[in-house]
Amino acid sequence: MKITPLAIAITALTGSLNAWAAKPAAEPISPIQPAVITNPKLVELGKKLYFDPRLSKSGAISCNSCHNLSMGGTDNLKTSIGHNWQKGPINSPTVLNSRFALAQFWDGRAKDLKEQAGGPIANPGEMAFTHELAVDVLKSIPQYVAEFKSAFGTDAVDIGRITTAIAAFEETLVTPDSRFDKWLKGDKKALNEKELAGYALFKNSGCVACHNGPAVGGTSFQKMGVVEPYKATSPAEGRSAVTGKDADRFNFKVPTLRNVELTYPYFHDGEAATLEKAVDVMGRLQLGKQFTTDENASIVAFLKTLTGKQPNFKLPTLPPSSNATPQPKPFE
Amino acid sequence: MKITPLAIAITALTGSLNAWAAKPAAEPISPIQPAVITNPKLVELGKKLYFDPRLSKSGAISCNSCHNLSMGGTDNLKTSIGHNWQKGPINSPTVLNSRFALAQFWDGRAKDLKEQAGGPIANPGEMAFTHELAVDVLKSIPQYVAEFKSAFGTDAVDIGRITTAIAAFEETLVTPDSRFDKWLKGDKKALNEKELAGYALFKNSGCVACHNGPAVGGTSFQKMGVVEPYKATSPAEGRSAVTGKDADRFNFKVPTLRNVELTYPYFHDGEAATLEKAVDVMGRLQLGKQFTTDENASIVAFLKTLTGKQPNFKLPTLPPSSNATPQPKPFE
């Protein structure tokens, strides 16, 4: 059979119609796809680095300290604890599904996960190290040197490769197979009536204007306090710190709602301890809506269907330091 | 066939002779046996509790913070970091193979792992919580309540059950299959000449008088500084703090040498950064021997053959807090 442009057009149309028939209404949230790993050695190296507290001055703080993969990729604290027990200025966002965000950090100051990964290592209030010292530490550990070579093909250990590896691991931290995604994919029994009512309200009330896409957020910066001002306990000014524009003050990256049941407390200052409170404040301040107790409960029930499959891997064993490894300095 | 006492005696004797024939010389170190898990639900619950920072006041310190299972069951710091970045008085010993020790803590003040597990939770310099608050937190988490019921058969959550579960998990943290154990079991190629020479020196020099048994230590309390006094940077007085006897001053539990390659820095004050230094100090202060550089290197080479199979399990996912869960207080 000769394939004509018309045949192609008809085939494409039929395909679209079939998809349309299977999914009668386009949903503003799309399912999370499982991670596709193209360089497993790089991901394994990044996993070790993610868990390695030797990337901090104290030798005690790792990426996993504040983005704990046993706890929804967060530390479940209002704000995190940094070097010398310093109180962080802002709530640690989850690392889970962070690959779907338009930028990293609440103010989007890092364009991607690789750029983000270098931040906390050198932040005096967080891991309080320097990129140079982090490189020195890793270069002194023979097994790490071998793993960098194996992952990258050549010997060099530098901060670019360190953050590339950490980011490659973080790219795999997606949480497919939530009940909501099962429902999206056609399993109509995956959600109960209350949860479906909550999802309808979530869409009809306008929550979905910002919380959309695969991560149910992370696709835009929005002002915290649209209808009513938000009185934050955090000093963070948001997007204006990056753009220098006054119009961007209190604009923050919309957080993902995936696994939101696990990522309490909520908001950039962590002041909402419960999902009920977060939904109530969001309704009033962002949408000018006072949800009834029942409405609030339905939305919360829907939000809890967004909990997906959590990270599923073996605890890494870190390569030991050598006699040449610089000592950690926890109390200096 | 009728089994007579004589037949039993002959069978027993033959068994002994066979064992003796296979192992021509009795070795003072015995191989680590793999863990036998009789109550997997209890072990799984204990694993979650071991990784759960909600057993601390701050919500940030778990058992795994100072006994990190990615790092030989230690934190690789001279002394640990407690609540509010307090400097601990003593080096955190490894949890790996701790089941083989005659008692727990450097001064042996806990008779077993269960008794030990309750200590750091309530120690104001460590996790700074109370047993009552720890119980309140866990009782407020429905999935934990269900897991306690499943592991113990009834509903109660109390500190006895919490520490029983943590200890049951810790009992599984053994590290079989080191190269040295392979050699012990008959694989004569498992060690090279230098390592064998190191082991011979380790025995002939008297190290083995204290470092023996399956854990290569942990079987007695001994004075730190027998031939020459040891000038510790730690204020800890050792066993006398438990017994009240002046004769027990500076007596400490002999640490295990299993996985010693991973458990740096060494001694109760963590002042020996390298194995070479630890071997040198031990030789001089405990045995009155000055090992040559070659002898020291041989013993170090032998010690590195004691690294066994590290913990091998999936990172646990912790059950989320409920709205009723008491909030962590990191900055109070």
From TrEMBL, chains A, B:
Region of interest called Disordered, as start-end residue ranges on this chain: 312-332
Keyword set includes tRNA processing: no
Entry keywords, A to Z: Electron transport, Heme, Iron, Metal-binding, Oxidoreductase, Periplasm, Peroxidase, Signal, Transport
Binding-site residues, heme c 2: C207, C210, H211, M282
Listed GO CC annotations: periplasmic space
Subcellular location: Periplasm
One Pfam family linked to the record: CCP_MauG
Processing and modification events after translation: Binds 2 heme groups per subunit.
Cytochrome c domain span: 41-149, 193-307
Major localisation: periplasm
Signal sequence, renumbered to the chain: 1-21
Protein name, per record: Cytochrome c biogenesis protein CcsA
Species of the source: Zoogloea ramigera
